[in-house]
Amino acid sequence: PAGVFHKLKLLTTLYLEENEIETVDEGAFNELPLLEYLDLRRNKIHTIHDEAFNKIGSIKNLALSKNKLADLPPALRTITNAKNLNLEDNVIVEIPEGFFSSLKAMQGLNLANNLIESFNDNSFHQLKSLTTLDLSMNRLTDIPDSSFSWELGNLQEINFSMNAIRELRQDMFK
Question: What's the pTM?
Answer without folding.
Answer: 0.94
